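Hey, resending since the last one bounced:
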Amino acid sequence: MFYGIAAAVSALLLASVLAALLRAAALRAGLVRQGSAGPDRRARPVPLLGGVAVVLSTGAVAVVGDRTGNAPLGSVGQLLIASAAVAALGLVADVWRLRTRFLAAGTAVAAACVVPYDDIGPAAGLAAVGWIVFVALAFKGLDRADGPAGTVGVITAFGVGVCAAVEVMDGLVVLLSVLAAALTGFLLHGWPRPARIGLGACGSLFTGFVLASAAVLTRSGYDAVSSVGVLFALTAVASADAVLALLVALPRRPAGRSRGRGGPDHLAHRLRRLGLTPQGVTVVLGAGAFSGVLVGVLVHAGWIGGTAVLWVAAGALVAVLALLRVPVYGAPRQPDISVRPPRRAESSQVSSRLRVRSG
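The structure tokens again:
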């Protein structure tokens, strides 16, 4: 108990210090994205190395606990190694802007190394790989705004950690607790005031991958139908955000935008269009994540029936359909086909002089 508290506090402080140090390095290197508007209504660049602080803090505290014998990771060490590989891929994407398909392929390879095929079977294992990739990319989408990815990540980590505790998976509980603490330390700088640093693809992919993989491990041995419901409830906000982004991507061409170009396709952007502040958006999404996680934990523990997940699904569907109607793109830009006024005719005297001067 004492070591768990000490590990969480260490991860929180280490992530906070590293985030402050890496912020200046990211600004010098130009690794930034556009952030939310501040009090002066001007958007500021947000450095993207906050995820490196989260990854290093989580890995360092978890490894120290394992090496000292205070919190052995056991088989969870394989998950930590795969997650580090995904984080490295995300860091490459932050620096060189990799396409999404490359991120998905690399994350799928890492997910294939952690899925428990012996417990869930090959078919379910393949579906689990796809779901892990989906959640990891969904958290990357959440990081397009200041605050939601870190906030939803903390809440989800606590929820999945409770599920792991129910299954007496001590190594997984330690990893998720340390991750939640590291994300909290990051939020000391990443909370939208506006945010001073962002997770970037490195941190968001790492967070989504760890949470999705851990959730799959906690549900190994359960029937597939109930597992689908619990896994969705635990990641309801991230899943809804990804679905909304996919639906919005379809009409981009009529709006005169490329489908490969980022845009206001996510829950946070549309809530901002409704008048919420960046802080308000983060609180609303955090409350939604807490509701879904609470249902998922209660269903996993057997304290309520599995049908309760249907309420989470219904709420997510209503939110997506309602926010899908929020206009975020302007009218299509039409080509300029207006007739220009004829040029004023030159006088014969000027023309004559020009002809004389030209010889």
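Residues 331-341, 343-359 have pLDDT under 50 and may be disordered.

Sorry for the duplicate.
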